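Aim 2 progress. For Putative gluconeogenesis factor, the working sequence is reproduced below.
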Amino acid sequence: MDKRISIIGGGTGISTILKGLKSYTTDINAIVTMSDDGGGSGLLRKDLKMLPPGDVRNCLLALSNATPSLEVLLKYRFKGGSLDGQNVGNIIIAALNDIYGSFDKALNEMSKAFNITGRVIPVTLEDTHLVGELSTGDKIVGESIIPKMAYKLGGKILKISMLPRIPKANKEAINAIENSDILIIGPGSLYTSVIPNLIIKGIICAIKKSKAKKIYIANIMTQRGETLKYSLKDHIEAIEEHSYKGIFDIAIVNNNKKPKDIFNSYYSFEETCPIYANDEDKKFLKERSIRLIEGDLIYIENKLIRHNFENLADIICRL
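Predicted structure tokens for this construct:
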């Protein structure tokens, strides 16, 4: 396969897709959100005044062709002491950022060291913080607390913006989008991983300019604090509200309803539900001229539901 593929999203959501696609093509671009402020990534961001490394690290790991021992190193988290919970991969990126004096150069060196397939591209190289505007009238600052506060306050997230301003897109991200044959948005946290990329200056213009097939990969489940009770239609409309109507050509959605015990467990603990294409969704997609592709996209590990990256990659590469 010689198609040029770009994927826009956050490190956790799109890393799964990257694992599958790297078996089909070497021309992959992961365009990654830069608003993470939680966990070890957030601590390094605050302490070292650098861009957050966590999401790009996940994508680097997904695309890595390094030895198993190096991959274990990249994943390792310290257990105790002042580094408790901190990830070695994050620290390596922080060190390279310090050595080379720029985040993009640090990622280039990291990519070489771990022999990755494709490229990992920060959507912006400017420092930003997410702002979530809620239906309650509250404005919440910070990617890591927006969902928590939205749930606590009982408000729906209406709009995502940034402080101190909306930044300019990384030129490499613009170039990758404009020259793609396939452009994928999602999966991932709708308001804190997916949409933040779309409001960066220049990204929507690049998407409109691109002749690529634009694909939305739906999440398997809704998410507490972000998309509780959201349908497939609700997800796409939220993206359109932060971009433009008709952004997608194709929507890929799971239709495996079998692991009911695990779905029930998720609902009991997180109040989340599986996302399928119901009749209303299908009517909406038809009105938007969005092609619906359904399939068994579920992979279960330790009672956790993930996207089946092999099945997804197979679907994408047949388009």
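The chain has a mean pLDDT of 95. This observation will guide construct design in the next reporting period.
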